[in-house]
From TrEMBL:
Region (Disordered): 51-78
GO biological process terms, semicolon-separated: cell redox homeostasis; cellular response to oxidative stress
Reactions mediated catalytically: a hydroperoxide + [thioredoxin]-dithiol = an alcohol + [thioredoxin]-disulfide + H2O
Protein keywords: Antioxidant, Chloroplast, Disulfide bond, Oxidoreductase, Peroxidase, Plastid, Redox-active center, Thylakoid, Transit peptide
Name of the protein described by the UniProt record: thioredoxin-dependent peroxiredoxin
EC category name: oxidoreductase
Top-level taxon of origin: Eukaryota
The organism of origin for this protein: Ananas comosus (Pineapple)
Entry's family note: Belongs to the peroxiredoxin family. BCP/PrxQ subfamily.
KW Oxidoreductase (keyword) present: yes
EC number(s) stated in the UniProt entry for this protein: 1.11.1.24
Main location: plastid
Domain Thioredoxin, chain residue ranges per copy: 72-219
């Protein structure tokens, strides 16, 4: 029968205890009571603050947005404006409240399409008056250009100078030919200043007059 023999001298045990000698720990930087990050401008909490107080993600950085023009559509009350007419007098859109008004934006004085459009409004002006409506043309030309244009073609209605096309942009009038040509767009506002028609046709300027009269004669 086999037996197991043990030596009389036990094996030495390994000592895993921490040495009693104290080694210096590396110095840790201490944060002040309130410090700021140069990266995101975050305010770090003090060491005693729980870690849950730290933001989980950095805030979004500010970014610049390009200005956006609101598009005036049917049923809207368009923003008011004050511009100079062909005589250098200031005219506000609010002046026409209480009666229908036709506001038509056109590219420029003396161009073939714009001349046709202006003369078509001129030839039908008595019909507009009979409907109780005012007609206002707007382009980026200055008042002296409007004056010469109105005199040459005997235009009986108001032409306003939108230098810098601020009103055009504010109303969101679209451009044509890939943005190279100011758009031709007509708006009909009722007695309360609410848009009842928006009509755009660059290459058939006389149609603006026809469509406008149809609406005015129906309201």
């Amino acid at each position: 029968m086999a037996c197991t023999c043990f030596t009389k001298h036990p094996l030495p045990l390994l000592n895993f205890t921490r040495p009693t000698k104290n080694f210096p720990s590396p110095a840790l930087p201490t944060l002040p009571r309130s410090s700021h990050s140069l990266l995101f401008g975050l305010k770090f909490p003090t060491l005693s603050t729980p870690s849950s107080s730290f933001p989980s993600s950095p805030p979004s950085l500010p970014h610049h947005r390009s200005p956006i023009s609101a598009k005036v559509s049917k049923g809207d009350v368009p923003p008011n404006f004050t511009l100079k007419d062909q005589d250098g007098k200031t005219v506000s859109l609010s002046k026409f409240k209480g009666k229908p008004v036709v506001v038509y934006f056109y590219p420029a004085d003396e161009t073939p399409g714009c001349t046709k459009e202006a003369c078509a409004f001129r030839d039908s002006y008595e019909k507009f008056k009979k409907a109780g409506a005012e007609v206002v043309g707007i382009s980026g030309d200055d008042p002296s250009s409007h004056k010469a244009f109105a005199t040459k073609y005997r235009l009986p209605f108001t032409l306003l100078s939108d230098e810098g096309n601020k009103v055009r942009k504010g109303w969101g009038v679209p451009s044509d030919l890939f943005g190279t040509l100011p758009g031709r767009q007509t708006y009909v506002l009722d007695r309360n200043g609410v848009v009842q028609l928006v009509y755009n046709n660059q290459f058939q300027p006389e149609k603006h007059v026809e469509e406008t009269l149809k609406l005015l004669q129906s309201i």
